[in-house]
Amino acid sequence: MKKVLLTLISFTAVLALVLLPVTAIASDTAISFSTDAQSVAGQVMTLTQDTKAYAEADESSEEKATFSKGETVYVVESIDGWYQIFFKGENLYIPAGSFTEEGIASAMEANEELAKEVSKELSQAEKDDFAAIENYELKKMSDRNVFIWKIVIVVLTIAIVAVSIVIGIMNAKSSKESE
Length: 179
Prior knowledge:
Shape: rod-shaped
Helix content: 55-70%
Order of helices and strands: HEEEEEEH
Radius of gyration: 37 Å
Largest sheet: 4 strands, antiparallel
Strand content: 15-25%
Structural class: alpha+beta
């Protein structure tokens, strides 16, 4: 009887040593996301004539780029008869006469439409991201529950085997005593 109890206690201790570290591994871990992005607000406009871009809002300053009629530029703001554009990581300046009023109005309409489309797309992406995160959390919770149930089943199986052994030993003793 002592051997059976010592074996049972030893087996339970070994099982506890094996399962405890695994339980620590299955615990939740935090996930963080970060973005480092710089944005420049403005609008895309089409040039109505060939034009040059300058380093400063002055035609005597250094010429940095040349554009052809029909090319598009990213206009950041309007400053005293000049448009500040963002081109290849630099702020450059082109004369305001490079655009017609019709071209500006057309660009404004196109930008508003584009802004609506981008807003819809970002909204959908946000919903998709939320759904993906929610699915990840549900999967993690499900995996944890499966792990817990596996432990419960192993412990119950061990308990049933131990009880069966103890009952068998007790029956063997009682049958020896009755003889």
